[in-house]
Amino acid sequence: MDITYTLALSFAVLGSVLSFLGIALRLLDKERRQQRAEQLLCLAVIAMFWHVFIYLLIFTGHIRLFPELYNKGIPLYYLIAPCAYYYTLFTLYPSAKISKYWVMHLLPFAFGVIDVIPYALASREKQVALLETVVVDLQMGFRHSYGFIDQKWHYLVKFMLAFVYLMAQWRLFYLFDPRESRIGAGARYTVLTFSIMYSLHLLLQSGLIVTILVNEMQGSFILKNTGQLVWVSLFFLLFSIWMFVSAAFHPFVVKRRIRIFKSNI
């Protein structure tokens, strides 16, 4: 078996496991699961996890066994960027309020839900038939007609929206003044690390998407090129490590802060 194939698959699987554990630890922590920032982070990572999981099924061909799962993540993927932005906002500015126009952020999600309806209503036989071609030629994931719009637009719109949200996300750091905030250095370091990892992951993933959409003739080859996919999987793994470590060591950090606080009383 090709070593790059093994690495790409291993990184993706290990990253998925660590992401799942990171989410589980956050949800099991009563204090953290009540925080808006942590809830949004979990939602964003669930969407990322689902994206990787579905791609693994496609890449290995096992998606043909579960045709009902295909393209169901499209609405979720639109939520990653706004969740990342608001996670940063509520971490740096815990008392910040959501705009009364917050529902506008859900419009792409609603748009995605509507567009998956044609595939969801298709018979299982037609779904399997489509997936038989997708597994062989991944470009069919862009070209199939099971949607109200050309499927390329999902990738283009998602990329453009993610870029806008990311710029707004980094603007929060630019405007943040630690002298006027009670946020500890640990929280700032955590959200900064998240933003860097997310930016690099998005940059690498977006580069592949743009290349695929611009050069359709080589799109399927690029998606099957494990040498390039291994980097995407590696960045996802690094992000998942952060997700797990930041959750696993949080109780120890909190206890240490309590001890320091008591010793200063």
From TrEMBL:
Top-level taxonomic group: Bacteria
Segments crossing the lipid bilayer: 6-28, 40-63, 75-94, 101-121, 155-177, 189-214, 234-254
Keyword Transmembrane helix among UniProt keywords: yes
Protein name (Swiss-Prot/TrEMBL): Uncharacterized protein
Keywords: Membrane, Transmembrane, Transmembrane helix
